[in-house]
């Protein structure tokens, strides 16, 4: 796994999805070298970079041009640029021109999650997987409600990573934000 500090950062772009969460996403998505992955809200490129090491192809979308530039730098830094397509656009417009994919990771939706889920559900291949990562309560609520309304059975886990920090007396654990991983598989 690539550690968080190994990604180039821009102050205008949120940092990468934390290393341990990227690790869980790789496992939960069951990604293989036959899969085409769509990363919605690629940001720094943390998820794009890790998935590009395993998947056949990653299509990375972000509406923020700085995020696309940063993801481009990070995939080059980590040597995985050959199987990554970058799309600078909002997710809904970008998805309209993409077909035949196997896994969708949604890490940024800007209030359009309901419509994004509807679109990806109509376009995913058989055995497709949808994964939403959510920090906001509203994101978790919309994701669960929408996936159920599409006839799917979302699995929900919430993870809080704590990191050991050395202080004078020993090691103190400091917690990161809890993050929900909401996943569904199309049968
Ligand atoms: C928290 S960051 C994702 C970090 C990323 N997973 C990583 O590992 O580097 C969320 C990103 O979603 C993007 N975003 C939010 N709403 C979007 C939308 N509707 N369409 C495309 N990108 C969107 C933001 O511009 C931001 O860069």
Q: What class, by secondary structure content? A: alpha/beta
With helices defined by DSSP (H or I, 4 residues minimum), what is the helix count? 6
Tally of structural domains: 1
Q: Give the overall average pLDDT.
A: 97
CATH-defined architecture: 3-Layer(aba) Sandwich
Bound molecule kinds, no repeats: S-adenosylmethionine
The geometry reads as globular
Number of strands: 9
Low-confidence stretches: none
Share of residues in helices:
25-40%
CA-CA gap between termini: 30 Å
Strand content: 25-35%
Radius of gyration computed on alpha carbons: 16 Å
- What string gives the helices and strands in order? HEHEHEHEHEHEEEE
- The CATH homologous superfamily: Vaccinia Virus protein VP39
Strand order across the biggest sheet?
3-2-1-4-5-9-6
Please identify the top-level CATH class: Alpha Beta
For this structure, the CATH topology is Rossmann fold
Q: Describe the largest sheet.
A: 7 strands, mixed
